[in-house]
Design a protein that fits this description.
Blueprint (H helix, E strand, L loop, with lengths): L6 E5 L5 H18 L3 H4 L6 H10 L3 E8 L2 E12 L5 E10 L8 H15 L5 E3 L6 H9 L16
Parallel strand pairs: 4-5
Antiparallel strand pairs: 1-2, 2-3, 3-4
Length: 159
């Protein structure tokens, strides 16, 4: 019997909403540590479970669960977006893996499935949204061939 962990990625369904909501909560907690403005500017609208269900039902959005031996430990949400030239790009808005799933290929499996799906739709340009200072996420995407093209600066008079 092989006890090796099997890395996987699959498209999420409506039956995954509770698990996606749990994973999103972990992502949000991690992002708030990096920048308290994240839920207000970059997070999903409340209630989160409704936003995730809407994303799953949206044909322009991809929601993927990343697994280790079929146990969900991460998720990715990406969508088609139109840039100023009118070209449609694939935009990875959120990618998250729990600590025990980092560095073993779960994130890569989700990213690769998202990019393959977009490519089948004829999309050849891709964005990934990463917070400044999130070195692990930046390194993850750079290892997949991404490079920075924009940084959004923010100032908060209340801080």
């Amino acid at each position: 019997m092989n006890d090796a962990l099997v890395v996987g990625a699959r498209f999420a369904s409506a039956g995954d909403i509770d698990e996606l909501t749990r994973l999103y909560g972990l992502l949000e907690a991690e992002m708030v540590e990096l920048h308290p403005m994240w839920p207000k500017a970059d997070g999903l609208p409340q209630p989160i479970d409704v936003s995730l269900a809407s994303a799953i039902g949206d044909p322009s959005t991809i929601v993927i669960l990343g697994t280790l031996s079929e146990v969900p430990l991460g998720f990715l949400l990406a969508r088609r977006e139109t840039i100023l030239t009118g070209e449609i790009i694939g935009s990875i808005r959120y990618v998250f893996t729990q600590l025990e799933a980092r560095g073993v290929g779960v994130g890569e499996a989700m990213r690769d499935l998202a990019l393959e799906t977009f490519r089948r739709q004829g999309i050849v340009r891709f964005d990934a949204h990463v917070l400044p200072g999130h070195r692990l996420a930046k390194n993850f995407f750079e290892a997949g061939g991404f490079s920075a093209r924009s940084i959004v600066m923010h100032h908060d008079d209340e801080r």
